[in-house]
Write a structure and sequence with these properties.
single chain; Maf protein; seven-stranded mixed β-sheet; 6 helices; 26% strand; binds inosinic acid; alpha/beta; globular
């Protein structure tokens, strides 16, 4: 079975990725499987750059083909930010509700409601040779915070052609349309064809 390192410390992501890849006869190794505890600084300006920093680092350290992902939300009324700083932006508020209210207020004030989530996956297979797989989901910022599923910005994001936020969709429904699933599907198609 082909072995690949997934460069992530997010336990939920690792479980999900291991499960998906098993079906395709690909064995996923995680950082903890290889007792790797150090990580590079994610100082890229784009999702692609940050994903590449991580996948190059993992490959150089272990010699296993390595992939890594980087995701976030880009909001029109915030000049398409916070982007690569999505996690930090949310954590800078006293809680998620305060952040969501701020984003909703801004979207209303500027009459700009568009937003998208993006995931970039970088796969490093040889020294300095990486391939990028992108996934995006377009939508709008909701007028109210809604829903209890998911994580992060899900409660304020309504995908195009839907009338519910991502947090009102079940995990299965979200996985059918999400930026992350799109990028992962492209990676699997590449690896299995
Ligand atoms: P990561 O690179 O996948 O860890 O994502 C960085 C941050 O972007 C997360 O901490 C979330 O705040 C936000 N984010 C990424 N993907 C999603 C999503 O599917 N729903 C909601 N927020 C997300």
């Amino acid at each position: 079975m082909k072995k690949l390192l997934f460069f992530s410390n997010n336990k939920n992501k690792i479980i999900e990725i291991k499960k998906i890849f098993k079906k395709f006869n690909l064995e996923i190794l995680s950082l903890s499987d290889l007792a790797i505890s150090d990580e590079p600084e994610e100082n890229g300006q784009t999702f692609e750059e940050n994903a590449k920093i991580k996948s190059d680092y993992g490959f150089n350290k272990t010699g296993f083909p390595c992939f890594a992902d980087d995701s976030g939300i880009c909001i029109e009324s915030l000049h398409w930010k916070p982007g690569v700083l999505s996690k930090r932006f949310l954590n800078n508020f006293k809680n998620n509700s305060a952040c969501f209210e701020n984003i909703i207020k801004n979207a209303k004030k500027n009459s700009k409601r568009n937003a998208y989530f993006k995931t970039s996956i970088s796969l490093t297979i040889k020294n300095n040779q990486n391939i990028i797989f992108n996934g995006t989901i377009d939508g709008t910022i909701s007028k109210q915070v809604k829903g209890g599923f998911g994580f992060g910005y899900d409660p304020i994001f309504i995908p195009n052609n839907y009338n519910k936020t991502l947090a009102e969709l079940s995990t299965k429904e979200k996985n059918e349309i999400s930026h992350r699933s799109i990028a992962v599907t492209k990676l699997i198609n590449f690896l299995t064809n």
